[in-house]
Design a protein that fits this description.
Blueprint: H1 3-24, H2 29-47
Helix pairs in contact: 1-2
């Protein structure tokens, strides 16, 4: 996965997490799951 692709995935997931957080609450299981996935992508980006 290229750096550009990774950045796009991070941005898309970030926006989705915000929308889910606003509709379901920031401590909902779906928001937490998205946040954890986002953390993994960000950590991957930082390790490149």
């Amino acid at each position: 996965m290229s750096n550009e692709d990774l950045m796009k995935k991070i941005e898309i997931l970030r926006n989705k997490m915000i929308l889910v957080g606003m509709s379901e609450g920031f401590t909902s299981p779906n928001t937490i799951r998205l946040s954890e996935t986002l953390d993994k992508l960000i950590n991957l980006k930082l390790s490149l």
